[in-house]
Specification:
The protein contains 6 helices and 14 strands. By secondary structure, the protein is an alpha/beta fold. It has one domain: Spore Coat Polysaccharide Biosynthesis Protein SpsA, Chain A (Alpha-Beta Complex). The strands form 4 sheets. Strands 3, 6, 7, 8, 9, 12, 13 and 14 form an 8-stranded mixed beta sheet that branches. A two-stranded antiparallel ribbon has the order 1-2. Strands 4-5 form a two-stranded antiparallel sheet. The two termini are 29 Å apart. The relative contact order is 0.18.
Length: 222
């Protein structure tokens, strides 16, 4: 984890103050952790994630099923990471708790929580999340507008109305929060009241390795 940020400037000169930041990638046993080793443009997806996050933190904590720990250690050689193995029976909540405990030991006050199902994270999007934390937000989520037409249906599936998209947003990662918020269950309901920042249309959600070609196409167009 990187030390206190006394004078780092991000984006439009948003200066970080009194924020000790850690970054966490949770690869819970039941979430196909091996998918994060899928190559994307020549690099394993998890390596791309670490490189994006390590631009604002000194070390990234990677929580992974102990059955995959050696493979992740090998893939992440030379990158600023610490692999935290968990038992194969561990739930996502267990993995998050392990990460929170280790981040706390390192003196973190705030955490960036990433998700391997959204491995493409633009630097400017990460910067916006961190800047919002530095401005005092306790919980920050990057979002993008919903552009698809959304309809409601009745009990038999007949279309009944069009939903107003102006108040709808798709949630993205990484999500920034105070360390004590990470210790709580990270659910959609727990995000109510979060500060939002502009996300990135390229930060698409995907299941690896199935969607590798889609993500590589996005990378090629950047």
């Amino acid at each position: 984890m990187q030390a206190l940020y006394p004078a780092i400037t991000l984006g439009k000169r948003a200066t970080l103050t009194a924020v000790e930041l850690a970054a966490v990638i949770v690869l819970a046993p039941q979430e196909n952790p091996g998918g994060a080793l899928t190559p994307l443009g020549g690099d394993p997806a998890v390596c791309r994630m670490v490189r994006s996050l390590s631009k604002v933190v000194g070390q990234v904590l990677v929580v992974v099923d102990q059955a995959f720990a050696d493979r992740f250690d090998a893939a992440l050689t030379g990158l600023p990471t610490e692999v935290l193995p968990v038992d194969s029976s561990a739930t996502r909540a267990d993995c998050v708790a392990r990460a929170a405990e280790q981040a706390g030991r390192r003196g973190a006050t705030h955490v960036l929580l990433a998700d391997h199902r959204q491995p493409l994270m633009a630097t400017d999007m990460v910067d916006r999340v961190v800047a919002a934390l530095a401005d005092g937000a306790e919980l920050v989520v990057p979002v993008i507008p919903v552009t698809d037409t959304v309809k409601t249906v009745d009990a038999v599936g007949t279309l009944t109305a069009t939903v107003d998209r102006s108040t709808l947003r798709q949630l993205q990662y990484p999500r920034g929060m105070r360390l004590d918020r990470l210790a709580d269950p990270v659910t959609v309901d727990s995000l109510v009241g979060a500060v939002t920042v502009d996300g990135d249309a390229d930060a698409v959600s995907a299941e690896l390795p199935v969607d590798a070609a889609v993500l590589e196409a996005v990378i090629a167009c950047r």
